[in-house]
Design brief:
The protein is α+β, with helices and mostly antiparallel strands. It has a 5-stranded antiparallel beta sheet with strand order 2-13-12-8-9, with no helix packed on it. Strands 3-4-5-6-11 form a 5-stranded antiparallel beta sheet. Helices cover about 20% and strands about 35% of the residues. Helix 3 (about 135-140) runs antiparallel to helix 4 (about 150-165). A hairpin with a 5-residue loop joins strand 3 (about 35) and strand 4. It is built from 5 helices and 14 strands.
Length: about 240
């Protein structure tokens, strides 16, 4: 039965008119203070404070955790389905929408960012809230059938990776230090092509009792193409044909 629920996910999009979302890319025109980088990330610079956000592809996440991404349906990469594919198909739907957040603080005594104050809003009004570690812990716990054996080990592997690599909680970045981790959101719906990712209440100044007295709200913009066809090859070919017309 292992992996059958994965098959179900892809079967619901089978048949004529399947959708094939492509990777997110930064919108060229960002808000003031933002810079688009060659690696597909966007950086907000405020003097010597830099906050960088990069959409992560499944391929990048699989390369980041190769030991748990190359076992087909048994892969235990918590961010992707690994190298698993439906037999006879060459495309696998994403498990989540993952963003890498990097903060370099050489400006303020301390900066605090709460990952749960990150939200994705699409131009067609869909809203996606970032997952907490506790929510993903419970999500993967549902895969654990029984409390011993392979299910238990898979659960421990996934939650260990999440704990080490997620931006899991409101973190203080002191002067002269850096912090990075992944923000995890639900997978975007097929009708979403343009998004804005907002991070609210980034605290940059505090009073004597440690309460924030100055905060910054940031907005990063990204876009993607969503191709349609009976297969990924058909969708890509149709896209190329339209591009030549």
């Amino acid at each position: 039965m292992r992996g059958l629920w994965l098959v179900g996910i892809l079967l619901v999009i089978g048949g004529c008119g399947r959708y094939f979302p492509q990777d997110l890319q930064p919108v060229a025109q960002q808000v003031e203070g933002m810079a688009v980088n060659d690696d597909g990330s966007v950086t907000f610079n405020l003097d010597r404070l830099a906050i960088n956000l990069k959409p992560m592809t499944d391929a990048e996440l699989n390369r980041q955790f190769p030991a748990v991404s190359a076992d087909g349906a048994a892969s235990t990469n918590p961010y992707t389905f690994g190298d698993w594919q439906v037999p006879g198909d060459n495309w696998t739907r994403s498990r989540f929408t993952v963003m890498q957040l990097k903060v370099s603080n050489y400006q303020y005594p301390k900066v605090v960012i709460d990952p749960l104050k990150a939200t994705i809003t699409s131009t067609n009004k869909r809203i996606y809230h970032s997952f907490s570690y506790a929510q993903l812990y419970d999500y993967f716990r549902t895969f654990w059938q029984g409390r011993t054996g392979t299910g238990r080990e898979d659960f421990k592997t996934r939650t260990s990776i999440l704990r080490q690599s997620m931006y899991t909680e409101a973190t203080t970045i002191f002067s002269g230090s850096e912090q990075e981790g992944y923000l995890v959101f639900p997978v975007l719906d097929d009708d979403v092509t343009n998004i804005r990712l907002d991070i609210e209440d980034i605290a940059v100044r505090f009073n004597y009792s440690g309460e924030a007295v100055e905060t910054v709200n940031l907005s990063f913009s990204f876009e993607r193409k969503v191709l349609q066809g009976n297969s990924l090859a058909d969708a890509l070919q149709a896209h190329k044909t339209l591009g030549r017309q």
